[in-house]
Amino acid sequence: MRVGALAKQAGMTRDTIRFYERRGLISSRPSEDSSNSYRDYPDDTVERLDMIAQARAAGMSIAELEVLVQVMETGDLEAFDADSFLAEKIGEIEASIARSRRFAALLKATRTALARAVR
User: Fold this and answer.
1) Residue 94 DSSP SS3
2) Which CA distances in Å does 13 have to 4, 8, 58, 59, 79?
3) Which of the four pLDDT bands, split at 50, 70 and 90, describes residue 75?
4) CA separation for the pair 87, 19 (Å, rounded)
5) 101 FRET partner, CA 20 to 30 A, in 32, 109, 111, 118?
6) pTM value?
C-alpha cells in the first residue's frame, strides 16, 4: 500500500506517516516497480498507526513509543523492564482520567450554576 492510501485509511497526513517511519515506528519497502521511487507499506501498518495514535492521545512520547515498538519487534526483554514501564504508563493514564473526570464535574457544576443564574 502506498503512502497516500495508508494516510487515507489511517486518517493521518503523509507527513505524519513519513515522520513515524523516520523514527522507526513503522516500516516500508521499495516498490516492486523499479521505475519509480514509491514505497509500499504492509497492510497491517494501519493497525500499528492506530496503536500509535491511541498511545499519543494517552500522552505517550515518541521516545517511549520507540522503545516499546523496538521491544515488540525484537522480543528483547532483557534490557527492558516491561512491567515497570507499563505500570508507570498505566498510572499516568489513570491519573489523567481522574483529572479529566474532576474537570468534567467542574464544567457540569458551572453549567448548572449558570442555568440557575439565568432563571
Assistant:
1) helix
2) 8, 8, 20, 20, 34
3) confident
4) 28
5) 118
6) 0.74
